[in-house]
C-alpha cells in the first residue's frame, strides 16, 4: 500500500490561509459594526413625542386647542431660572413653517403658588446670582440692617405722633399758619445742618464704620429730643429744630457710607444691583416696623418704656450691622490692629479678624489717639535740641518720628516728597516706637514669647527717647518689608491706605 502523503501542496496551503484571513477580517468588521450600533443605541436619549395626547395636553395646558392635533416640529429649547421650554411650530403641506405658528411647550408642571411667590420675593431682596454674586458677609449685614430699619420704622410712628401732638398743644393760642411756619423752620434747620456736616466728606471714607455708627447714635439722639417735645410743648420749635439737625446729619452719614459698604459686598460689576436690593430690604423692614408700631400705639403703651426698648434694639442692630462689614483697606483703626498683632505675635490678622477687632467706638472727631500722623512741627517738637538729635536718623527717609513726653504722644511728621508707601511706613514706625515706650514704662516688659522673628534682640533696654528712636529705625528697616508681604498675603490692600494724615509737610 502506498504511503499517504500528508504534506499539503503549496497551492492548497496558500488558498487555505487566504480564505482564513478573509473570514477573520469579515468577522472583525462584523463585531466592530455591532459594537458601534450598540453604543449609539445606548447613548441616544429616548425619543419623546413632541405633542402630548390630546386630553393630556388640554389638562396640562401645554398647547392651545388648535395645535392639539397638529404636526408640530421642534425649533429650539430654552431655560430660564431652572425652568425649561421647547419651542415648536407647524408646517404646511409643502413642508414650510407656517407664519406665527410658534408655540412654547413647558417641560414641567406649573410651579406651585408658593414657589412663584418665593421667586418673586427673591427678585426684590437678593441680587441676581445670589449667593455667588456677593461676599459671605452680605447675609449677616443685611439681617442686622433689616432689624435696624424695623426698629427705626417702629420708632418713627411714636416720634411723629409726639411731634404732631406737641405742635397742636398751642393750637388754641396760635393760628394754623404759625404751626405751619414752625414746621417749616424745623425742616429748614435740618437741611442747614445737613449742608454744614457735608464738609466732613473725607472722613466718610477713612473712618467709614465709626462714622456710620456715630450717625445712628445721632439718629437716636434726634428721636429722643423729638419725644421730649411732649414734656415741653412750649419749647417745640427749638427742640424740633435740634432733633431735625441731628437726624439730617445722621442721614448724610448713612447716605455717604452706603456705597462703600455695598461695594465691599459686590464680587463683580453688580454694585447697582446690590445697592438696589439692599435698599429694598431696608424699606420692607421699615414698613413692617411701622405697621407693628401703629398696632402697639393703639393700646397707649408707656412712651418712655417703648422708646427705651426700641432704641436698644436699634443701636444693637446698628452695631452688629457695622461690625459685620469686611473691608480690605487699612484705615487707622484696622492698621493699629494689624501692626499690634504683627509686633506682638509675628502674624498679620486676616481680613475677617482685623475687621472684627476694629474699635467702632473710636469717634473720628476725638483727639485722644496716641499716634499723630502728619502733625504740625510745633506740636511734635518744643525743644530744638530734640529735633537736631533725631533729624540725621531720617535723612534718607521721607518722614520723621518722635515722642513728646509732655503730651504722651508719638508724632510722625511727613516730608513734602512723601508718597503713599512713605505714609504707611511712617505709621508703622510710629506704632513701633509707641510699643517701645509703653513697654519701657511698664513694670513688666513684654515676655520673650511675645517677640518673634528677632523682635526680642532689637528691643531697647534704655529709657532714653533718642536711643529708642534709633533702635526703632533699625527694627523698622528689618520688619517693615515682612509686614507688608504678610499683609498682602492676607488680602489687605496696602496701596489704598486710608490713614488720613494731616496736611502739614516738612521741606
From TrEMBL:
Domain Protein root UVB sensitive/RUS: 115-345
InterPro entries: RUS6_N (IPR057404), RUS_fam (IPR006968), UVB_sens_C (IPR055412), UVB_sens_RUS_dom (IPR054549)
Chain segments annotated as coiled-coil in the UniProt record: none
Top-level taxon of origin: Eukaryota
Pfam families xrefs: RUS6_N, UVB_sens_C, UVB_sens_prot
Domain Protein root UVB sensitive 6 N-terminal: 22-111
Ranges where the Root UVB sensitive protein C-terminal domain occurs: 347-501
Parts of the chain that traverse the membrane: none
Family the entry assigns: Belongs to the RUS1 family.
UniProt-recorded name of the protein: Protein root UVB sensitive 6
Amino acid at each position: 500500500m502506498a504511503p499517504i502523503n500528508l504534506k499539503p501542496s503549496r497551492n492548497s496551503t496558500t488558498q487555505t490561509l487566504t480564505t482564513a484571513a478573509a473570514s477573520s477580517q469579515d468577522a472583525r468588521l462584523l463585531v466592530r459594526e455591532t459594537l458601534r450600533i450598540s453604543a449609539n443605541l445606548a447613548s441616544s436619549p429616548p425619543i419623546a413625542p413632541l405633542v402630548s395626547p390630546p386630553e393630556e395636553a388640554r389638562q396640562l395646558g401645554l398647547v392651545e386647542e388648535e395645535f392639539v392635533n397638529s404636526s408640530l416640529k421642534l425649533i429650539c429649547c430654552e431655560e430660564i431660572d431652572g425652568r425649561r421650554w421647547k419651542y415648536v411650530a407647524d408646517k404646511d403641506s409643502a413642508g414650510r413653517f407656517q407664519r406665527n405658528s410658534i408655540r412654547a411647550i413647558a417641560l414641567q408642571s406649573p410651579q406651585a403658588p408658593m414657589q412663584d411667590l418665593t421667586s418673586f420675593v427673591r427678585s426684590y431682596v437678593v441680587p441676581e446670582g445670589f449667593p455667588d454674586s456677593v461676599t459671605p458677609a452680605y447675609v449677616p449685614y443685611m439681617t442686622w440692617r433689616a432689624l435696624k430699619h424695623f426698629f427705626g420704622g417702629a420708632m418713627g410712628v411714636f416720634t411723629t405722633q409726639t411731634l404732631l401732638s406737641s405742635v397742636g398743644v398751642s393750637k388754641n393760642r396760635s393760628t394754623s399758619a404759625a404751626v405751619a411756619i414752625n414746621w417749616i423752620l424745623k425742616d429748614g434747620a435740618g437741611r442747614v445742618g445737613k449742608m454744614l456736616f457735608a464738609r466732613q466728606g473725607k472722613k466718610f471714607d477713612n473712618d467709614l464704620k465709626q462714622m456710620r455708627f456715630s450717625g445712628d447714635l445721632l439718629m437716636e439722639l434726634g428721636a429722643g429730643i423729638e419725644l421730649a417735645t411732649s414734656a415741653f410743648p412750649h419749647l417745640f420749635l427749638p427742640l424740633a429744630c435740634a432733633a431735625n439737625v441731628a437726624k439730617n446729619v445722621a442721614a448724610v452719614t448713612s447716605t455717604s457710607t452706603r456705597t462703600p459698604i455695598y461695594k465691599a459686598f459686590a464680587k463683580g460689576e453688580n454694585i447697582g444691583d446690590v445697592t438696589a436690593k439692599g435698599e429694598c430690604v431696608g424699606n420692607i423692614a421699615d414698613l413692617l416696623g411701622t405697621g407693628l408700631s401703629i398696632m402697639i400705639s393703639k393700646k397707649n403703651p408707656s412712651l418712655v418704656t417703648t422708646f427705651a426698648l426700641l432704641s436698644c434694639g436699634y443701636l444693637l442692630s446698628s452695631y452688629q450691622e457695622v461690625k459685620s462689614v469686611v473691608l480690605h483697606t487699612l484705615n487707622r483703626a484696622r492698621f493699629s490692629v494689624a501692626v499690634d498683632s504683627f509686633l506682638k505675635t509675628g502674624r498679620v490678622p486676616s481680613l475677617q479678624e482685623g475687621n472684627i477687632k476694629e474699635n467702632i467706638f473710636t469717634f473720628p472727631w476725638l483727639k485722644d489717639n496716641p499716634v499723630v500722623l502728619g502733625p504740625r512741627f510745633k506740636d511734635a517738637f518744643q525743644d530744638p535740641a530734640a529735633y537736631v538729635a533725631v533729624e540725621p536718623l531720617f535723612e534718607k527717609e521721607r518722614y520723621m518720628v518722635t515722642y513728646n513726653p509732655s503730651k504722651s504722644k508719638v508724632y510722625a511728621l511727613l516730608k513734602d516728597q512723601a508718597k503713599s508707601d512713605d505714609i504707611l511706613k511712617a505709621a508703622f514706625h510710629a506704632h513701633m516706637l509707641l510699643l517701645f515706650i509703653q513697654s519701657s514704662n511698664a513694670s513688666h516688659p513684654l515676655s520673650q514669647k511675645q517677640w518673634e522673628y528677632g523682635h526680642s534682640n532689637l528691643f531697647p533696654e534704655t529709657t532714653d527717647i533718642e536711643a529708642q528712636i534709633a533702635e526703632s529705625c533699625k527694627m523698622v528697616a528689618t520688619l517693615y518689608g515682612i509686614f507688608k508681604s504678610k499683609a498682602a498675603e492676607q488680602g489687605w490692600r496696602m496701596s489704598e491706605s486710608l490713614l488720613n494724615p494731616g496736611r502739614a509737610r516738612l521741606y
